[in-house]
Amino acid sequence: MMPNHKDEIEKLSTAMKEAKSKRAYERYQAIYLHLQGYTKGEIATIIGRSKKTIYNYIHAYAQRGLDGLEMKYSPGAPRRLTPEQEKELALIIEHQLPVDVGFEAKYNWTLAIIAELIQQKWGPTYTLRGTSDILHRLGLSYTKPTYTLANADEEKQKEFVEITFPEVKKNW
Predict the structure, then answer these.
(1) Fewer CB in 10 Å around end: N or C, the chain?
(2) What is the DSSP code string of 85-122?
(3) Span 17-60, pLDDT tens digits
(4) Where are the domains of the chain?
């Protein structure tokens, strides 16, 4: 083993110990194994990634060293709704009923209705899980609806809770 390989292996070992995410650890480990003499196929099997991914890690390391292995951002699919569309969706859900935006005889928001609204208004289709993720990101929570009467008489409610209900409960 060449001296500079030994130094690099020590640096990688330290980087693996200090890695803050599984993905970063995996990248360092791939290069560590590569410098130890493992083939790309063996490394891919050990780490659970494709040979192409291992090749990309090795290439990035060859070009820029440890810096080439750092993730600058979390990979993932781009959002299908713009921030403005997400804000508009939140306002619709907060201030309108489904019947107000064209869902006949629907008075409660459901994930299915929200997913359909998104598809009708902006185009992208979402699963119920994806719709739930959007609501979570917008700070909205999905709960079963409860009913409150808009014209409820507070005095009658108080009388029921303090007088009528205890009587009914006693006789039951």
Answers:
(1) C
(2) HHHHHHHHHHH--GGGGT-TT--S--HHHHHHHHHHHH
(3) 998 888 899 999 999 999 999 999 999 999 999 999 999 999 99
(4) 3-69, 83-137
What distance in Å separates the CA atoms of residue 168 and residue 103, rounded to the nearest whole number? 40
| 131 and 122 Cβ atoms separated by less than 8 Å | no
Calculate the CA dihedral of residues 34, 36, 41, 45 and round it to 10 degrees.
Answer: -100
Nearest to 126 by CA among 138, 109, 139, 114: 114
The closest of 127, 137, 151, 125 to 93, measured between CA atoms, is 137
pLDDT one-digit tens code per residue, 142-167: 776 666 666 778 888 888 888 888 88
Residues 6+ apart with CB under 8 A from 117: 89, 92, 98, 101, 103
CA distance 103 to 130: 21
pTM value is 0.48
Query: What is the residue-averaged pLDDT of the chain?
Result: 87
Q: Which contacts of 1-6 are long-range, i.e. CB under 8 A and separated by 24 or more positions?
A: 5/35
Q: Which two tokens stand for residue 108?
A: 């409660």
Between residues 71 and 161, which one has the greater pLDDT?
A: 161
